[in-house]
Design a protein that fits this description.
The chain has eight helices and 14 strands. It is α/β, with parallel strands linked by helices. It catalyses: FMN + ATP + H(+) = FAD + diphosphate. Its EC number is 2.7.7.2. It holds the Pfam family FAD_syn.
């Protein structure tokens, strides 16, 4: 997958392939997001175009005064990896700066989408664009003027609740890992490095952490999956000088893992009080590891 970083305004000399493009921030790349991206890929294959995704960095809400989005369900590098695994040919990462945040809906189409040679644009039902999100799918259809196809993907629900990044963030606050994994259609994943002798984990990227508690997890180590527990004493963290993120995460079974190497941690479930107290319980609830709508 080719990754192209863009800033506004685009260079007059910028040239790219014609594409079927999916647009969105896509934090989490959950099941609903996957539907948007897969439709763009489907149409690209049907018409011989390149499949593309346009995403943004940082999150638009980071420009607000309260700066509420400092941690992510899927930081950029993880998001790019998921896009590639889905089969995307090109990802455009647009710098969401103050200048770009003030772009008008018309200029977004005329000065961004058309130069990108987008012949098909796939968006979610709640997509917004332009200054302060002033425009939506209906406006994009009008501004296209037949120059590119616009496909809007409807909401996808699970048990009468919309699958959304906002609801995944709420589930993280509640420690509801089963719901999160269902909405993502994969296990919620973070990565970090072990430091010291107490199993403390330093995050490699600003992942959004579940609530304080103890969790069943699995880690790939020594050429096999190791089931273990992760204790979260504090879900807030500070950025270190080396670019890592320190928080109070402590990993059991640390002796099985290499120190100072990045490890991937996949969440299975939150342990409840009675489970933590049961010393005989050594295996996670594997029957809960299937994710159905």
């Amino acid at each position: 997958m080719k990754v192209i970083h863009l800033s506004y305004p685009l260079s007059p000399s910028f040239v790219t392939d014609s594409s079927s493009i999916a647009i969105g921030y896509f934090d989490g790349v959950h099941y609903g997001h996957q539907g948007v991206i897969k439709e763009a890929i489907r149409y690209a294959k049907k018409t011989g175009l390149k499949s593309a995704v346009m995403t943004f960095d940082p999150h638009p809400r980071q420009l607000s005064e309260n700066n509420s989005y400092t941690a992510y369900i899927t930081p950029l590098l993880d998001k790019l990896r998921i896009f590639e695994n889905l089969g995307v040919d090109i990802t455009y990462v647009v710098s969401f700066c103050q200048v770009f945040s003030k772009i008008s809906p018309l200029d977004f189409v005329e000065q961004f989408l058309l130069p990108l040679r987008a012949l098909s644009v796939t968006i979610g039902f709640d997509f917004s664009f332009g200054y302060q999100g002033a425009a939506g799918p209906y406006d994009l259809q009008n501004l296209a003027k037949g120059r590119f196809r616009v496909k809007t993907i409807p909401s996808i629900n699970s048990k009468h609740e919309k699958i959304s990044s906002t609801n995944i963030r709420k589930a993280l606050q509640d420690g509801d890992i089963e719901k999160i994994n269902n909405y993502l259609r994969r296990e919620y994943t973070i990565s970090g490095e072990l430091r010291g002798n107490n199993g403390e984990l330093f995050l490699t990227r600003p992942f959004l952490l579940p609530q304080v508690g103890e969790y069943w997890i699995k880690i790939y180590a020594l050429n096999r999956w190791v089931y273990s527990k992760l204790k979260i004493h504090n879900s807030l963290y500070k950025k270190c000088e080396n670019g890592q993120y320190q928080t109070q995460l402590f990993l059991l079974a640390k002796d099985l893992l290499p120190m100072a190497e990045t490890i991937e941690i996949r969440f299975i479930s939150l342990l409840h009080t009675e489970q933590i107290q049961n010393e005989n319980e050594t295996n996670p609830p594997l029957e809960k590891m299937s994710y159905q709508r």
